[in-house]
Design a protein that fits this description.
alpha+beta; Multidrug efflux transporter AcrB transmembrane fold; Alpha-Beta Plaits; transport; SecD_SecF_C; translocation
Length: 357
Amino acid sequence: MSRKGKGREGRRERTAGGQDGSFRLGRQTDSPPAKRETPLPAGAEGNAASSTGGFRGLVERIDFVRYRRVYYLITLAFLVFGGIALAWRGLNLGVDFTSGTRIEVKVGKEFTDEEVYGLLKDHPPSLVERVGVGESTSLVLRYKRVLSQEEVERVRELLSRHFGGDLTPTVSTIDPLVGRELARNAVYSTLLAALGIVLYMTIRFEYRMALAGIASIFSVVGIVVGLIALLQVEVDVTFITAILTIVGYAISDTVIVFDRIRENRQLREPRDAEGYISLVNASIRQVFVRSVNTVLTVLFASLALLVLGGPGLYTFALTLTLGLFFGAYASLATASQLWLDWILWDLRRGRLRPARA
């Protein structure tokens, strides 16, 4: 065989070798077959991302499920501590929930709380608020008792003499029966919201997730109410608004976690207890950064209200700030962990059949 013929034969052999996955020297005419993608099983996404650095990489290395007993003890400690504070000191109910008088006067200039308290030392209000700015500034006085007509007139004279002009106050009196009705309606609205949450989560997820979610939400409400009682912050209608807002944010965070658990469970049903533990761990890791970023965004706004909002918004801002923090904690460390323990308990008792291999 000539040297030219051997060269052609060698090129054919090398070209054929490329079809077996090795190198190829000839011109490629056909594109390689497309790879078929299969969905990742639960936890595979978290394991793949564990090699990344930074905060996300740190999250991927945390075993959230391992310390769930510690989470329960922390929650229980706050609940017991708050319950003791509530039984010992009680809530500092404001005029909205007790009998009292509210006086609002347009003064048209800036003032300080110390200035007003010094002016009204013979008729000291329980709370001084500022509404508006500049020429639209109004002074709001709250008393935890019903003022007589003579006392209201005396307050008006002192304010008119101090701020100038003949001020005309707007006086409103709250009857004790009205205060009790407001408190009763506040409890009913919270319970109604809880019932709606249970029904929604039962329809969208399952009854275990619904009851675990509502238990975590009630723990958040209990902790916040206990801390407010300990701090003796005056409770008004804005407190109820903050509580309902907390319930909404807490259930939103919980739904995000449960929704990811459901999605991962649909990709691959766990076969045993270890599979469910890996499922919950992977789901929390995948939504942790998103949940933290969402809560921090709202938390910055509530902190701004707490610092700059003034006395009128102090109760609302403080309650909301505490609720956002403990609500985010409960969605990651309480709700999903309660669901997992319930699942493991049903597995041990044979009420839940594991998936077949």
